[in-house]
Amino acid sequence: MEVVHERCCGLDVHKKIVVACLLTPGGTTRRTTEVRTFGTMTRDLLQLADWLAAAGCTHVAMESTGSYWNPVYNILEATCTVLVVNAQHMKAVPGRKTDVKDAEWIADLLQHGLLRPSFIPDRAGRDLRELTRYRMSLVRERTAEVNRIQKVLEGATIKLASVASNIVGVSGRAMLTAMIAGVAEPAVLADCARGRLREKRDLLEGALEGRMNQHLLNVQLHHLDDLDATIAQVSEEIELRQRPFAEATARLMTIPGVGPRRRSLLR
Length: 267
Fold this sequence. Notes:
The chain is of the alpha/beta class. 47% of the residues lie in helices and 14% in strands. It starts with 7 loop residues before the first strand and ends in a 15-residue tail after the last helix. The chain folds into 2 domains: 8-111, Ribonuclease H-like superfamily/Ribonuclease H (Nucleotidyltransferase, domain 5, 2-Layer Sandwich), CATH 3.30.420; 123-266. Helix 1 (42-54) packs across helix 2 and helix 4 runs antiparallel to helix 8 (214-242). The chain has helices at residues 42-54, 69-76, 99-111, 123-155, 170-180, 186-190, 201-207, 214-242, 246-252, and strands spanning 8-13, 17-26, 29-39, 59-63, 81-85.
């Protein structure tokens, strides 16, 4: 097979070690193979980068396993062309399951141009992606907490969700806060309703008759408030980092069905 990359390296990345196999074509002679093992601390990865640079290595490849490839990529992207490849795209033949042979297999595929790299954004894009994914996790956690509050209400035979579409909206929070303060009379709780929900006060009185675990509800609402504050903080940072891409964002908004995230979804 034709050699595409003169000097290249395959990496088998683990949590604590990185096994590197450096291949150098030998022209009419057999190619040379050098294998070294490095740690995954920053200083160890800098040593890996220095070793590759001294050897004149231009291309590096590794599997996209878990999140262990991230720090390696962050260090090497400044000095090499780094390919992060889906493990399914470079399965080794059965039996090749040692770290050294895995690294050599990756290097061999890379040297002959047989690897298809995954798209990896630049550093700013990766940081923004981490923020958006973290925000998504927070929103999911918020939804789970609301569901837990609903479970506690049902256990107390309080059927607020049967009347109000959002148990933690303005009206719902007012009723829940009153419950925590010790208010137990259904009529008084129902009077906390706002807007169109006030038209359903008769239904609310029946739905709000029960025995609430005040301490647990108080803890849950505090957790919900903490999540809301964190989501707002992360959202603000995301908006700040997106400002350089305002023109591209505006173009994307012209696509039918694509629009900005609505803050009302959190309420």
